[in-house]
Amino acid sequence: MASHKSPEYETRLYVDNKFVTASSEETITVRNPFNDDFIASVPCASVADVDFAVASAKKAFYSGEWSTFSGAQRAKCLFNLAMLLEDHAGEFGRLETIAMGTPIAITTAQAYGAGAFIRYYASLADKIGGESFPDDGDDMYKVKFDYFPSLALIKL
User: Fold this and answer.
1) Looking at the domain assignment, is residue 57 inside a domain?
2) What is the pLDDT of residue 156?
3) CA angle at residue 128 from 70 to 61, to 5 degrees?
4) What is the pTM for the complete model shown?
5) How do beta strands 148-155 and 13-15 pair?
């Protein structure tokens, strides 16, 4: 028989650096696929919730601290994120295992692997050379790399 306990973790939407209540009352029930235990009910984000999150992310990107950071400052933030992820890999592994049923050795390794990917990209944060061109209103950031002669377009 499935048990019904309250979730151990915050399940509201995380937008604009805080937890917020979804505008919809619709939820998704997460169950452990191994034994059908209740894990949590999580909010189902509405179109309005997603629009709010996207607007918040754009505001943070264009006018937040990150947009003024040097490559070295961005690298430092990413290295800290990787360290936090690796420090809590066991917890992430446990959560993923109870929600998805994947063996804990795999989910914990995936958390460590995610930290390794973040470290890799952090190591590149201050290595980009070439020219970049500001957004001209089409939400595309243009970058021309010294080692890649064509123009790369990155959708924001």
Assistant:
1) yes
2) 43
3) 45
4) 0.69
5) unpaired
List the domain range (segments joined by +) for residue 8. 1-68
pLDDT confidence of residue 126: 80
* Distance from C-alpha of 95 to C-alpha of 111, rounded to nearest angstrom: 11
- CA 56 to CA 24: how far, in whole Å? 19
Is 144 inside any structural domain? no
How many domains are contained in the chain?
1
Token pair 């950031």 in the structure block, residue: 141
CA-CA distance, 150 to 153, in Å (whole number)? 10
The per-residue pLDDT for 28 is: 94
Residues in the chain, pLDDT under 70: 1-7, 128-156
133 lies in a domain? no
Q: Provide DSSP, 92-150.
A: HHHHHHHHH---HHHHHHHHHHHHHHHHHHHHHTTT--EEEE---SSSEEEEEETTEEE
Position 53 in a domain: yes
CA neighbor of 42 nearest in space, from 99, 97, 111, 92:
99
Q: What pLDDT score was predicted for residue 144? A: 57
pLDDT at 155: 45
